[in-house]
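Page 37, top half.
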Amino acid sequence: MIAQVLNQDFVLEAAAAVEQDLERNLQRREGPRRRGAPRGPVDELSSAELKEAQEELKSALQRERGAAPEDATAGGGVESKDALAYVPREAALSLLQTVIDEYVEESEVKVEESPLPGGRRGGTVPAVTDRWIADIPIQRLPSGRRKWGDMEITKHKLFSDPGWLTSGFAMAVRAFRGRADWVDKPPTVEIGDRARIVVVGDWGSGIPRAKEVADQIRAVLDEDSGRERHVVHLGDVYYSGSKREYERNFLNLWPVRKGEEIGSFSLCGNHDMYYGGHAYYGTLLKDPRLARQGGCSYFALKNSNWLLLGLDTGYEDGGLNGDQAGWAKGLIEDFPQHKVGLLSHHQLFSAHEPGAKKLQEKIKPVLATNRVDAWFWGHEHRCIQYDASEWEGHRVGFASCLGHGGIPEYLVMKEGETKPPPWAYEYLKPFGSPDEPWEKFGFAVLDLDGPQMSVCYIDEEGTKHHCVEKVVKP
């Protein structure tokens, strides 16, 4: 990831420039074409496609600029996370980040790989990234806020001929609108009764700290535990799930090596679908290491005691596409003596932000069984454990957010702070400088022993910071 492409000011100015260029191209097409005028990449797209791209970007800009600023400063003197690790709410803006990032990587634009000028750094590994476009100067204002020079961002040579960006964005919108076909053949994969399942969420950023997480997962896999081993990703490859992002940010760094007898699985998150899910199905799930998933975005892992159901909440953003609830409920009823665990990208609830409303509605038939003993989700870039509780009258067992695999997030609480039940634990040890208290990255290790599951949380430095010996209470 490149620092400028993670800066909100940069992305919004670039988006405004592309929206204006789309408007110019549409107006040009309404007039007579000059004889002999050279064709550019934009000319390969229809007026309808350009109009659709313009409307997507214009409405995304309006919503983003009108949204309340995120309270992610974690205290006085700390600049907004959106200046350093901007993850847009809007799919169109994530698509634009992908297009800019991939163009910069493939062009002759000089990218520095060194500590950012004027940045704060808490160790040998950058909190976010040490990659930045060299000739867009970085400075801090007297307030401490980071700014990318006094010039307008769009005067940079990257935008002197925006046709490449306009065309790339319009084609990305085409993919977003024309999403991949839904695959409705969920496999039930038999796993060992003594199994170790490593679970990580929102990992696919490719930044150095995400690589550290992969190294720590590898260390766990190399332990002589005597257990069958599996790794599950809870979804989201950034910025928008393009083919290149899966290859660079996921498959090249995945801790399971080719040819190993270690199961690999990856759920679908909202960012996986921003490029229409084409690369999720056509690149990620085609990798031989994920063959057990059978090309489907949801699946079941089953042994003699446990039924772990991986749900796709990304194809329908924050929902359950198709009859996943019926499928899950049917499996639960078919194995009445099994303990049940759910895996998903989106959260049912949170101590910090709303749950996914469509998921809350569609999962009710599953919760009505009162058989959910554990649930692990991502999406929110934090590490949280919740005790068993009731949600709208239905029992929800041990629950945990594991979205802290690879996207930088500021701490919003301090060590020693608590929240009301069912909140039970949150990893609040900061990464890096106290001036910018970032969440530490990490993952969880689930060990299955008969009807019992233990969970141990490990951070990017290999520290075991929280363990629960018995997830299922007697």
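Page 37, bottom half:
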Amino acid sequence: MPDFYFWSVVLFFSILGIMIYRDRKNLEFHTIMVIKRSKKGRKLIQSVANSSPRFWNAVSLIFVIAAFVFMIYGTYLLSTSTYLVLNRMITKPAIQFILPIPQSQPINGTGFIGVPFWFLILTVPFVMFPHEFAHGVIANVNKIKIKNVGLMQVLIFSGAFVEPDERDLKKAKLLPKLKVFSSGSMTNLTIAILLLLASRYLLWPAAVPTGVLVTDVIKNSGAELAGLEPGMLIQEIDGKVLKVDYDEFTLSYTYLLMSGNITSENINSVSTMVSVGEILENYEPGQTMEIIADNEYYYVKLSGRPENSTIPYIGISGDGIRTNDFMSEFLFPFTWWLTTLSYFVAVFNLLPIYPLDGGLMIEAVAEKYTGKHAKRLTSAVTILTIFMIIFNFIGPSIISMII
């Protein structure tokens, strides 16, 4: 059978290639980068900025403070992982590249994570456009003109940009500069938080009903002896309504991604294990558990797990996410990726690396307080941070060969 996912990716790049060729006179080609600049979109940015300047100024001031907090936080995480690599407490690349792959399930390779192509393509507008749009709005609020907006393609990666007037930006005071530089990444973080809350408290409860469907009953287990059978719906355990929540789904998805064993079936199964496992933490082997399944009462005597007799064991496996395929195979994994990538893009952009947002903030502060030494200071901080990133990626391999 043809691999429709793979061929959909081929079709996408074929269409993209045709569009680039037909519009080639309006494009700029820079080795591996294609750029299209446009003055369209500036009016929209300006109208949003003019809608409530006081509001945007207040929000952007909060963004500046939060951006420095996350810059410190990201640098701390990077420094900590560098220390752990040096002490051989991390033996695999601590930083991994994100690469699109032409298949429906992600993979976790050595030094990279392969993200399903359409997940990554659909994530880009939700990450890049708000990021750049926020830069433009806050620039306008602070009287910094926008010269162009545009799109860019770097090999297989798409992006967007807002190009402020360099003279206006250079003449601006420190605080307006910091507001502009911090706004993009902090907008990404805000979107990640809002999306997480919406998924957890609105989308998931509406789409995933209560109860866990029993898919298998282990022979001679307490569940089989009590009369539980495949196909039954477990509704309660000792008076507690049984339902897989969004946190259990995200935990399961993350675990399976890191272990390289992610499939739709495994996501459902592990989510159920997490949900039931949290209840089992309060029990010991030999105790009896009251289970309501298909509105009937069953009394299950817990045994010990085959691999560890001290851990209580019911003797069932189940499908915790009982919703349509679109929800379980696309929408919820997509919201996980969108939230995760929005968060990591924001934190990475706030690292003190020039010309990322964090590096521009460091340079602006250095220009204000160190004058002619600003470039050197910014370069030194940038080089140190990049060195730590590279070391986190290749350090474990180097140390394993030396020691």
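Margin note: Residues 53-86 form the longest helix (34 residues).
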